[in-house]
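Structure (tokenized):
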């Protein structure tokens, strides 16, 4: 919210009006903590109608008008994200992972049930216990949930194109009690597939004694950066062939390639790769 710059007097007038609504006009007095929360709410809504061109105040838009427009955009965003969530959750599959199931079907649902778009739009409410491949950082409230729903939708898109029995087999091979763990399911499946492609092995097949040697050879022949680039190329081909060359899906999954390249480079030579 660094671009926002209005005079404090303008903002305090809006906060005072919001405080009246909060107390149902029975009192104009609220605690300091509540006043600060309401100020954050006002700034959060103003931020909703700010663009990349700079300060709203410099474009002659009064703070009250910016706040009003921001509130309108906020409500439209909540509706849009809730529709995206409802669409995604119809075919959602947690593949037996309890944290994934609980977070998506109960946690995100609870957000929309309890989100206070008027008095606390900046509050994210839920802890988003299921980690996504691209971490949700630097945002809160509906902005954070929007990114979270998009991330989970992309991960579901990736997983749905793979036979369910293959996904279950990969996860079981990775860790027998994966259903109790708090890691990202999509990343495990993605890394398994890419490592298999790297060594010319059919995904989902059990490990054999030659796998470590093949991985070590592949890692030995490349620098870490070269390995990262090669993984990205394999991922690009995979997305092109199985997902209609979906740029958004590729960009999202490609975020995982840095960590995968680092992991393979550090552990591949020592024959300690888990996939």
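Design, position by position:
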């Amino acid at each position: 919210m660094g671009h926002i710059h209005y005079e404090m007097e303008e903002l305090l007038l809006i906060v005072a009006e919001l405080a009246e609504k909060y107390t149902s006009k029975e009192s104009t007095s609220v605690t300091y903590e509540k006043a600060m929360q309401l100020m954050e709410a006002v700034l959060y809504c103003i931020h909703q109608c700010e663009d990349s061109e700079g300060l709203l105040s410099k474009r002659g838009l009064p703070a009250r008008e910016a706040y009003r427009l921001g509130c309108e955009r906020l409500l439209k965003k909540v509706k849009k994200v809730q529709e995206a969530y409802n669409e995604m959750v119809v075919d959602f599959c947690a593949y037996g992972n309890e944290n994934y199931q609980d977070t998506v079907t109960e946690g995100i649902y609870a957000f929309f049930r309890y989100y206070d778009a008027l008095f606390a739009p900046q509050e994210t409410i839920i802890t988003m216990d299921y980690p996504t491949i691209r971490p949700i950082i630097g945002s809160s409230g509906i902005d954070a949930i929007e990114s979270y729903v998009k991330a989970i939708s992309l991960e579901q898109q990736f997983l749905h194109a793979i036979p369910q029995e293959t996904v279950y087999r990969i996860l079981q091979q990775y860790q027998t009690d994966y259903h109790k763990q708090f890691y990202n399911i999509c990343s495990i499946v993605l890394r398994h597939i890419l490592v298999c492609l790297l060594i010319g092995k059919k995904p989902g097949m059990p490990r054999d004694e030659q796998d470590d040697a093949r991985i070590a050879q592949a890692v030995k022949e490349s620098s870490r950066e070269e390995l990262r680039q090669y993984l990205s190329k394999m991922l690009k081909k995979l997305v092109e062939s199985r997902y209609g060359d979906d740029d958004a899906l590729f960009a999202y999954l490609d975020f995982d390639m840095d960590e995968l390249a680092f992991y393979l480079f550090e552990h591949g030579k020592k024959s300690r790769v888990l996939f």
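Reviewer-requested clarification: Residues 8-73 form one domain. The mean pLDDT is 91.
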